[in-house]
Amino acid sequence: MTYSINLFKLLFAVDDHIFRIGKAELIRTPWKVILLLMLFSTLIYSGMGLLGIGSSSISSGAALLTASEYEMQKLWFVFGRMIYSFLFVLFILFVPSLIFYWVTKIQFKKLLLMQLVVLFVLLVERVLWIPLVVYFGLDWYVSPLSFGIIASYFTDIPFLIYLFGTISIFQLWVVGFQIKFISKLSATQKGWVWATVILFNLTVWILSAVVAFTDTLIINRWFNL
Fold it and tell me: How far is CA 65 from CA 23, 48, 78, in A?
């Protein structure tokens, strides 16, 4: 049996397609889907750069720059967002797939299909956040889609707000989807599957919070502001 991914059918008929993937003897490498999602990611992050989302540190130093210098730095910022989008896609697709393959011995291509769904969901989350920041000025860590806004009522510690801000309803769905997918395709004990998936995602959330916590300093040093 050969399986070719249909992203939307896999997303909305999860159990049926996980069963088909598990029975498939041959998985076709989904290069077209990978390239389309990579293009989608690039459009999202470059569009965010053009809208100035995340460029507050650059804007705050605009008074110290000439008009041409300021426009050049905005161009470099957009270019940086495009590079980030490319690295983001590579990380989401291949790093978890390699780690889960090492733990469960599920065929790598099958895990890659799982991560294609994860990538698509995370990109949809990013698209939904854009109007929240453009029209309401809500940073990602206090988005109503995440738990950061709840954390901000209980603590003033920025790192904790960032940490809970990285955890959203989309992220929780991803964790549940990964656990279901791996549990159905692997003979690994469910306890190990749960521990591996949760520990991996928790590590990513913590690293994301650390990066967000130091982001202003990094941008300031990059642009010498």
Answer: 61, 22, 18
Per DSSP, helices labelled H in 105-147 are 108-136
The secondary element (H helix, E strand) that includes residue 26 is strand 26-27
Nearest Cα residue to 212 out of 131, 146, 136, 116: 146
Give me the mean pLDDT over the 136-140 stretch: 83
Q: Is the overall model pTM greater than 0.85, yes or no?
A: yes
Q: Which residues pair with 27 in a beta bridge?
A: 3
Dihedrals phi, psi of 27, to nearest 5 degrees: -110, 120
DSSP 54: T
For residue 44, give the amino acid letter. Answer: I
pLDDT in tens, 144-192: 889 998 998 888 888 899 899 999 999 999 999 999 999 999 988 999 9
Q: Which two structure tokens, joined as six digits, stand for 94?
A: 């291949």
